[in-house]
Amino acid sequence: MSASEYVVEAVPARPTAYIVEAVRSPVGRRGGGLASVHPVDLGAHVLSSLIERAGIDPSTVEDVIFGCLDQIGPQSADIARTCWLAAGFPEEVPGTTIDRQCGSSQQAVHFAAQGVMSGTQDLVVAGGVQNMSMVPIASATSVGTALGLADNPYTGSHRWAARYGDQPVSQFHGAELIADKWSITRADMEAFALRSHERALRAIDEGRFEREIAPLEGVNIDEGPRRDTSLERMAGLRPIQGNGRITAAVSSQISDGASALLIASQAALDRYGLTPRAKIHHMSVRGADPIMMLTAPIPATEHALQKTGLSIDEIDLIEINEAFAPVVLAWQKEIGADPAKINVNGGAIALGHPLGASGARLMTTLLHELERTGGRYGLQTMCEGGGQANVTIIERV
């Protein structure tokens, strides 16, 4: 057979995953209006709101993927499945709960979109839930200690020690390391934190969040933003660690909340008469140093831009989780993004960080803000335990 006789088959176009609907609860402050809401009821609330807003038969959903950390007590036993059933929806629809640390519900969106893009699913719910008032952060570790187990997941691992020695593995330590490496002063971080509160309060006052929030228990706005904060108040706080620079003022708030998105294929749009609001343009996840822990958004963003051929200047809006102020400030220095495009409605320092729900919360806010401003591309990234970061680029349609 001659070369001219070979037939080259065209590679079929990859199916597109669309965002049809996105909704979240208000984010409650620790001990605030959502503190006594059972995590299952919190998740069921956003699921009910999502299905109602989308106007679909819940039996057409093929899977429910939720992010949640500290999966013990009221957050245990596959809370994605439990939330769906508590919402009164069909028993034949399954659910699964995942843990990629702070990026868990962003990863849930990735898994849902990948199911659609693989051609194996047409309609998937992705989201997350966390009640940090009811189940304090690191509760799973505390339970392990009470059972006589190691007080952290690395203690006793000879292979981990051989690679990383006895360096402390802590988000606070990592934030301090970032501030040192990128020469970020405490004043820099406090100015950033104040801007986060100011932007969040402006968004609340202008009603920017109203379309995305499903009120619950009489709470209809995010409880975290502080109108009485100031640089002077921040300057009076003690560092979390010794003589460090990180204080509570430049850290994300402990919070309660839930969020959910409906991801659909073209076939589902046609079959059920759904209108897409955005499509998933790119998804990736990368890792970095687990000791510095919080720098992975930098290489992850570089990877995503390289894969897509987009420049950071072509991105209209950016949501990067404000786990700590130096995370965003170091990322901004390395990536060169315009500060005016970053967390335009405030971030986790002001709005709060309900761990398992934050990824889908950021995605929900990003989608609504793209629609409000008429932007085309939105990029979301967040640092995660273990030195990881997801990046999602969505394109408004």
UniProtKB/TrEMBL annotation:
<dbReference type="InterPro" id="IPR020613">
    <property type="entry name" value="Thiolase_CS"/>
</dbReference>
<feature type="domain" description="Thiolase C-terminal">
    <location>
        <begin position="275"/>
        <end position="396"/>
    </location>
</feature>
<keyword id="KW-0808">Transferase</keyword>
<protein>
    <submittedName>
        <fullName>Putative acetyl-CoA acyltransferase</fullName>
    </submittedName>
</protein>
<feature type="active site" description="Proton acceptor">
    <location>
        <position position="383"/>
    </location>
</feature>
<feature type="active site" description="Proton acceptor">
    <location>
        <position position="353"/>
    </location>
</feature>
<keyword id="KW-0012">Acyltransferase</keyword>
<feature type="active site" description="Acyl-thioester intermediate">
    <location>
        <position position="102"/>
    </location>
</feature>
<dbReference type="Pfam" id="PF02803">
    <property type="entry name" value="Thiolase_C"/>
</dbReference>
<dbReference type="GO" id="GO:0016747">
    <property type="term" value="F:acyltransferase activity, transferring groups other than amino-acyl groups"/>
</dbReference>
<feature type="domain" description="Thiolase N-terminal">
    <location>
        <begin position="18"/>
        <end position="266"/>
    </location>
</feature>
<dbReference type="InterPro" id="IPR020616">
    <property type="entry name" value="Thiolase_N"/>
</dbReference>
<comment type="similarity">
    <text>Belongs to the thiolase-like superfamily. Thiolase family.</text>
</comment>
<dbReference type="InterPro" id="IPR002155">
    <property type="entry name" value="Thiolase"/>
</dbReference>
<dbReference type="Pfam" id="PF00108">
    <property type="entry name" value="Thiolase_N"/>
</dbReference>
<dbReference type="InterPro" id="IPR020617">
    <property type="entry name" value="Thiolase_C"/>
</dbReference>
<dbReference type="InterPro" id="IPR016039">
    <property type="entry name" value="Thiolase-like"/>
</dbReference>
